[in-house]
Specification:
Length: 363
């Protein structure tokens, strides 16, 4: 247990313990106590407003988190579920975690790393309990529409209900004559095994997209040599092989398709495909490179409601402004797509503010 000086707030103490545990999970990126308190300050107006009344306009106010949060995690987005667990504990809630088998060890390990009093506020189950649904003040669900709709059918009007469906992300390379962004692009497309909504499925490249794909392939191979992956299921391996075969058949028919791939299906694939459109569904470490279209709005129209993040190079505000009309809630540098800051508005919305209620004190 950490030793805190007199006057250290409860929220700061909890934030320190959460950051200490998060340090063992690279998929969470850099999580610090300062960053968590910065999130509280950004969304709720004061870093200590969870601990006591603080000035708020012309009076005083205090934010109070839910007593119990039910968290339904997804096997595709374990890091996202862990972030919600961190946020729930930061708000002082008891968190009931329903997690799939593939992610259970991460939640169990995170709980093990917490001090006993904080760990006691985390319960973990592989099955969604009707009793848990009934007692939760707030319910957070990750997953597809089927999962969300199944839980929604049991939500009461008094319960807060937040949903995070699967998202799609991409990159845009406006200028990169030296291919300096390819190492970061390979990291975005490889770290964490290409799972979750922040991983790029395609890079739209303004100049020399075929050469860019070749450079990206070399970086993907370097990443694979450092962090090889294994095929986790028959369906996983079949999806990679089938897509490779389909692209190879198009190339044999004289279509300008170029495929770079690892020696084994479990490794990586980079495909240059000039046909307009957004490739879907996402596949493990399988990334497309396409020419940047003149009308990116039309290209993204079909997937626009599902967009999560765009990595941009160079990462300037001028280029960010060019992307704001596409409805993408997060714009970041290529190479940092999987490392959102603590103050990130997930899916374009606050993560703490929707969960709290307010007590006003006029003195």
């Amino acid at each position: 247990m950490a030793d805190f000086p007199p006057g250290r707030t409860k929220a700061a103490e909890v934030a320190t313990h959460l950051a200490d545990a998060a340090a063992y999970f690279p998929s969470l990126g850099v999580v610090t106590a300062h960053g968590l308190l910065a999130l509280v300050h950004a969304e709720l107006g004061h870093a200590e407003i969870l601990d006591d009344f603080r000035p708020y306009g012309g009076h005083f106010a205090r934010a109070v988190g839910p007593r119990t949060i039910l968290l339904v995690a997804s096997n595709r987005r374990p890091a996202a579920g862990l972030r919600s667990l961190i946020h729930g504990l930061l708000l002082g809630a008891r968190v009931l975690c329903t997690v799939p088998d593939s992610s259970a060890w991460e939640f169990l390990e995170f709980r093990r790393l917490l001090p006993a009093k904080l760990a006691a506020r985390v319960e973990i189950s592989r099955e969604l309990s009707g009793a848990w649904l009934a007692e939760a003040d707030a319910v957070i669900v990750y997953g597809g529409n089927e999962t969300i709709d199944r839980v929604r059918a049991h939500i009461q009007p008094s319960q807060i209900f937040l949903t995070y469906p699967q998202k799609l992300s991409f990159g845009v390379i406006f200028e990169d004559a030296a291919f300096a962004s390819t190492a970061g692009a390979a990291r975005d497309a490889s770290a964490g095994d290409h799972l979750g909504g922040l991983f790029p499925h395609v890079f739209f490249v303004a100049k020399d997209p075929v050469a860019y794909a070749a450079k990206l392939a070399a970086e993907m191979e370097r990443w694979h040599a450092r962090a090889p992956r294994e095929i986790r299921s028959v369906a996983d391996g079949n999806a990679i092989r089938n897509q490779r075969v389909a692209l190879a058949a198009r190339a044999e028919n004289d279509e300008p398709v170029v495929v770079f791939q690892s020696a084994d299906a479990a490794g990586w694939t980079v495909a240059f495909d000039p046909v307009p459109g957004f490739p879907y569904p996402p596949i493990h470490r399988f990334v497309y490179v396409k020419p940047l279209p003149a009308d990116l709005t039309r290209t993204l129209a079909e997937v626009q409601p599902h967009l999560g993040c765009v990595g941009v190079w160079p990462a300037t505000l001028d280029y960010a402004r060019r992307l704001t009309d596409f409805g993408v809630p997060r714009i970041c540098p290529v190479g940092r797509m999987q490392d959102p800051p603590s103050t990130w508005h997930r899916d374009g919305a606050p993560v703490l503010a929707p969960l709290v209620r307010w007590i006003d004190a006029e003195t």
